[in-house]
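As the work plan foresaw, the team has encoded backbone shapes as discrete tokens. One protein thus recorded appears below exactly as we store it.

:::
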Amino acid sequence: MPDVALEPLRARLRELHSVVVAFSGGADSAFLAWVAHDTLGVDGALAVTAVSPSLPTAERDACGALAAGWGMAWQEVETHELDNPDYARNDLDRCYWCKDALMAAAGPVAEARRATVVLGVNVDDLNDHRPGQRAATERGAAFPLVDAGFTKADVRAWSRELGLVTWDKPAAACLASRLPYGTPVSVGRLSSVERAEAGLRALGFDELRVRHHGDVARIEVPTDALDAVIDRRVAVLDAVQQAGFRWVTLDLAGLRSGGFNHLLS
């Protein structure tokens, strides 16, 4: 059994009474959405997926499939963060403006339901550079997983215990996170990253990042997958170059979640 109990999370959700879950389809938001639906029912829990060029099409489709399979109330809302120059210039506060756009879209949905927007932030997330949490808090969002003391490991352990298919889903940040800070976010750059990563996943590499450095793509995979990338060098080159990159590199340090945040320390 997982180390942390599920009941405090359910109690916190009941305390909120009605929630709108920011649902990206990742392990954290999927777990929170499932528990909210299971605790509060269709009338008390709505999962909302923010749709923009920074969300890969495959993730958008996965959200719809999960919601349908679990019988959750679900809808999409469009966000327009790319229209905001504060977001597009991609400085250290990019995630602030992303969450600000999310809350601007999800807020009215929650208000109409007399609900609170909740995010799948866990205790471990509090230790990383995540200015989006500040934006969400300023707009009245709640973090039930944090309130109930759930770490990332707890989320995965309970997801597995409950039989959720997302229990071992690799972490997947938005496509804009593949661009170094200071490189402006554009639809073209996001599209190149999405196509390159989709091409590599088609080759069987499920856990990866393609970092965008202009004409250069820097591939990150777990260190135990480095040899496999080399073994399939020709196919890897073809997949990434077809996405618009001229040169393709493999990062020998391996996959790092929040790959550009380590440069801030």
Remarks:
- Residues 94-113 form the longest helix (20 residues).
- Strands lie at 19-22, 45-51, 73-78, 116-118, 209-213, 216-220, 247-250.
- The chain has a mean pLDDT of 94.
- The chain has eleven helices and seven strands.
